[in-house]
Task: inverse folding
């Protein structure tokens, strides 16, 4: 059961509210709709690049990358990027957008407190309607003071042998201290992640590629003081023929990719040292489970925190046949890595009984003192009632963490944060963007950490 360190609690309707003595209190200052999204039917959506972020903050302005679907434009590349900005006083304003619909996926964002906004784009180079065709990764540079002014287009440099398509599975990170950038893009045939790095002088450099044991996608990428870290999840067709057959009998779905093996690699200096051979830091391969890689953070000492969801069993009908009696559970896991080795692991949330938090999503947030928090989503059960909500958890607490509700009218099911991995400075303000219970709306919320 999730431990709830509280002074008192009470129920207002279906909302569980906690009064936490002496702790940080998350106060919702803004909750609103930014825009709406029309399905592109191309296999991606507004949250598809969840390994990176599409929202960033510079001072008292928030910048947001959103995709818009082209009406009657055939897939796969049938969306375009839009750049939105909001001063803290509001409202949101659309300041620039792509002329044509040439993107399949959302376009990750990075910010530089020096006054630049970076947008990772992957436009198709082929006629409209082409599927799995070549694309040309670019990085667009905007002036944060005048984001509506003409932007600069930069072409990253890659090692020889790339084959980039509309399925980029790319990762993007900005170092908020130096303005350096790191971009990953997958080779469509080999599955290797090719690496391009932009130094603080603005020069792009090819940095080879990362070869994972199996094709690995949706990478979380982090660049800090030239050290680089990558987290990625295995993404392959079901390798167990018996399970594959059973799933088809039950679901009738031809799509059968599994996400079970979690990999990590790093380099202490992206300019001079190649990435280490990737290591497998968790797996649920033997029990037909599911892992969702969520976030990555590093402190000043180089200690890395890895956040992910772990389900030992993904399908109850496989569990019932092959692993009878074992519980169906979901755990929000926090892994500690130093110098490329796992040195600690703890479960921050897991419902093992009838009450507590059943986690479904989470991201890190770094406050103004450098402390890490988890912003989570999930179902809370208390006194026999279950509701969905968003919660704040302390990364420093051992085992099941104290949870504090973030009281939103429309809690996020999945979301991006304005993260330090994207160049946003540590702050007591949490900026969230994502999807709640009122599709097709895309929503924003600003939460203040009151001490």
Result:
């Amino acid at each position: 059961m999730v431990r709830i360190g509280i002074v008192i609690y009470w129920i207002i309707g279906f909302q569980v509210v906690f009064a936490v003595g002496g702790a940080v209190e998350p106060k919702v200052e803004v909750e609103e709709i930014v825009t709406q999204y029309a399905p592109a039917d191309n296999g991606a959506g507004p949250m598809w690049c969840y390994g990176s972020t599409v929202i960033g903050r510079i001072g008292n302005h928030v910048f947001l990358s959103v995709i818009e679907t082209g009406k009657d434009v055939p897939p796969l590349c049938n969306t375009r990027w839009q750049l939105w900005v909001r001063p803290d006083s509001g409202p949101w304003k659309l300041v620039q957008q792509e002329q044509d619909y040439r993107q399949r996926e959302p376009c990750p964002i990075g910010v530089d407190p020096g006054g630049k906004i970076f947008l990772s784009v992957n436009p198709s180079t082929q006629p409209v309607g082409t599927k799995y065709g070549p694309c040309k990764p670019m990085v667009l540079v905007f002036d944060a003071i005048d984001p509506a002014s003409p932007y600069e287009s930069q072409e990253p440099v890659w090692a020889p042998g790339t084959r980039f398509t509309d399925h980029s599975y790319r990762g993007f990170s900005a170092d908020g201290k130096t303005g350096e950038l790191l971009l990953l893009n997958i080779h469509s045939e080999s599955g290797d992640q090719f690496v391009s790095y932009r130094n603080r002088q603005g020069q792009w450099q090819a940095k080879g590629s990362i070869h994972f044991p199996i094709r690995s996608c949706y990478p979380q990428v982090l660049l800090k003081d030239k050290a680089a870290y990558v987290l990625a999840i295995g993404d392959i067709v079901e390798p167990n023929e018996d399970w594959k057959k059973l799933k088809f009998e039950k679901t009738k779905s031809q799509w059968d990719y599994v996400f079970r093996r979690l990999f990590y690699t790093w380099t202490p200096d992206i300019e001079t040292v190649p990435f280490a051979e990737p290591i497998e830091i968790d797996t649920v391969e033997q029990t037909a489970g599911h892992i969702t890689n969520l976030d990555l953070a590093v402190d000043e000492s180089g200690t890395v925190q890895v956040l992910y969801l772990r389900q030992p069993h993904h399908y109850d009908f496989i569990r019932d046949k092959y692993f009878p009696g074992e519980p169906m559970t979901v755990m929000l896991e926090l892994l500690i890595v130093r110098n490329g080795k796992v040195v600690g692991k703890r479960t921050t949330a897991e419902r093992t009984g009838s009450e507590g938090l059943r986690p479904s999503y989470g991201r890190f947030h770094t406050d103004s003192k450098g402390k890490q928090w988890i912003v989570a989503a999930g179902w809370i059960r208390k006194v026999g009632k279950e509701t969905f909500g968003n919660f704040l958890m302390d990364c420093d607490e051992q085992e099941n963490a104290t949870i504090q509700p973030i009281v939103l009218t429309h809690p996020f099911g999945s979301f991006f944060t304005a993260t330090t991995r994207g160049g946003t400075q540590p702050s007591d303000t949490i900026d969230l963007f994502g999807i709640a219970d009122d599709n097709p709306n895309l929503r924003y919320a600003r939460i203040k950490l009151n001490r």
Residues 37-211 form a domain with the Neuraminidase fold (CATH 2.120.10.10).
